[in-house]
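FAQ: What does the model actually see?

It sees only this:
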Amino acid sequence: MNLHQYIERDTGKIITEKLIGDRSVRLLYNPVREHAPTLFKALTSARMSSMLGWLHFDAGLERKQKKGAALFAKMGVNWQECLDPPDYFDTPRKIFERQIRYWQVRPMENDPRAVVSPADARVLIGSLEATPELFIKEKFFSALELLGRGWGDTFHHGDFAVFRLTPDKYHYNHLPVSGKVIDIYELDGAYHSCNPAALVTMASVHAKNKRVVTIIDTDVENGTGAGLVAMIEVVALMIGDIVQCYSRAIYEDPVPVRPGMFVKKGCPKSLYRPGSSTDILLFQPGRMTFCDDLQRNVCRRDVQSRFSSRFSVPLAETDIKVRATVGRAESRDGHQAGNAER
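And it is asked to produce this:
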């Protein structure tokens, strides 16, 4: 299947995604990977990813031909959301790393039990419970493999949300929950594409990529009350780095995320530089219920998703805004605080 569609949350419309470099990605993850494994490894290395990022975001024709509002239009981005004026943006990299007035253009509800989206992204939700009909556990990732150390059993039968960021998206990550950071660590790896063609071709692509894992205890004073939550920031093709830059107020006085810190839901946590990338949230069993509309959307059979086609079960993504509610915390005894509707 060449077509890939998703559901726009705000309107309910089915949108056909224009996948950037799709033909090249399909070539890389089929003939090249199978017949030239050494070349495939080189093309998904940190050095090649950095070079591709520079060519696309720093040395591209866009810089010579367009800047400001014209460059925003070419990249399909709304410049009116940004903190800086249009004439500041004279390269695709500056647009990629833009700061927005998120407190105005990405509002967040006041419910302390709400779990929110960490990014502007296309989200796929599901369960890691070991049942035969679910492909996720073995094909997409396992919690143990993804987390890399220590925490796999904690989330083994829990729920997950995969947020796929495309190059046009706002690329600051925000905290999905409030709580105390009890662990944060980096795992080295490759720079595979997050294009659906790559995700359905190779098993556990996310667990093969470089990533930062943050474990947050939300069962603390002023926390969200969703138990332990794992936030995994995964690099992808053309991503150079994940910069940890937590800010309590707007983007001011950014600091690295450290164990022992209390972090507040909705605040900026980190920045991808630059390309496409993925955030993954893992939840303990029974501690969070996804919003009804997301649960309905993922099962839609009228959406032509490459995930559905590859794994023979309905798996449709929903386009979602950062800081929008994705679900609500449940107490340890399984009683939910409030309704999980949007």
